[in-house]
Design a protein that fits this description.
Blueprint (H helix, E strand, L loop, with lengths): L1 E6 L6 H6 L7 E5 L2 E10 L4 E9 L26 H10 L1 H4 L7 H4 L3 E11 L3 H9 L5 E8 L9 E13 L1 H16 L9 H9 L10 H8 L4 H15 L22 H16 L3 E5 L5 H7 L6 E6 L2 H10 L10 H4 L2 E5 L14 E5 L10 H12 L3 E7 L25 H15 L1 E8 L10 E8 L5
Family: Belongs to the methyltransferase superfamily. HEN1 family.
Keywords: Magnesium, Metal-binding, Methyltransferase, RNA-binding, RNA-mediated gene silencing, S-adenosyl-L-methionine, Transferase
EC number: 2.1.1.386
Length: about 475
Amino acid sequence: MLLTIGTTHRPATDLGYLLMKHPDRVHELDLPTGRAFVCFPEAGEERCTAALVLEVAAPDRRAAPDGFTLGRFVNDRPYAASSLLSAALNKAFRTAMTGRSKERPELAATAIPLEIRIPVLRCRGGADLADRLFAPLGYDVTATAIPLDAGHPEWGASPYVDLRLDGTLRLADTLHHLYVLLPVLDDAKHYWVSTDEMDKLVRAGEGWLAAHPERELIVRRYLAHSRALSEPTLERLAESDDLVVADSVEDAPREDADEDAPALAEVRRTAVLRALRDSGAQRVLDLGCGPGALLADLMADRRFTEIVGVDIAPRALAVAARRLRLDRPGAIAERDTQRIKLVQSALTYRDARLGGYDAAVLMEVIEHVDESRLPALARSVFGAARPGTVIITTPNAEYNSLYAGLAGAMRHTDHRFEWTRAQFADWAAGVAAAHGYTVSIEGVGPADADLGAPTQLAVFTAAGGVA
């Protein structure tokens, strides 16, 4: 079995530091199923490739997964990538999977260009399933079905594919994706599946599995179709999707604030609505809509003819439905029910349902996403969905010193980061340049002469409109 991991990151030989393997040596590991080797067929400044080779001990005397008696002696295990390769990957690159690197700590936390190749992969579901599993994670997927016999095309395709994945991700994230999804594609685990596998799956799937559109299929296949294991695991993942409700320091006014001044949340929504109207948008996405405050304002304005609220959390969507009275038949006019719909989706995954809209809003959303996942969010929103206008608001970290008692902390317990004006401007400019947009930024809320406004608002405009 063979799996290769390549990069064009400069210097490319940093891949050895991330994998904790020296490119000039062949590394050998003993496994219960045989022996694994890690080597570097190429290791230069511009390109570096690591190869994981697994030699399965023969004969394989365990019962074949399909019940074929001779299958324990005659099988594809030494040749086709399967759950055995996943186990070898976990042992060979265990330190890399933690996301830590003693020599390159910053690089371990950085998304880098990666090329994954598995020339023979057992794939029950074919090339289409490989695409459905890996594409939402931010990969460009090339899965080519391998014929049973090239000399007899009429025999059709074999159960194997030649898989290539290209993407810009953290290496640790890619290793976790492979660790989970190789057994899922194989759909025939070759070791005893116990309750320990539930915890392994949840740990390896942290940050991506709960929101994956094929979550149920992944869980059931990984846990060998055991309902006793799958159902509790799916419940754990569903709980992790729930909206984190926490008070924001913005809810408490500054000591010197005007008591009659509108709340910052209201001022922010007003600014977003103005930007939407200025863009001329009629069909609007509210990405990360939460309990639906902005959706209610959009519904009140007839110029918005189609409104889609999107959130990862089912509970947030349920609250939004109640707020908009969508949960009560006849509570609102039928023409209004036709203008709006609520969709569960994760913004770091491509979703074909979100393509082709006039505008998208991410109001106080990006700071709830791990910084390492922001490239995936940008690809799905600006690259895949590509609305004509994207409006993003986020806190201005410089302004935080004006909030009593904040003392260097962030405004909300669920924020992963808060940016200064310069940091937000740099990120926005990079996203705009990468995806063919122009961007303008303004402050929202009562501004301080030195620290700026409490909220930053960016308006991205696509070159040439909606793709």
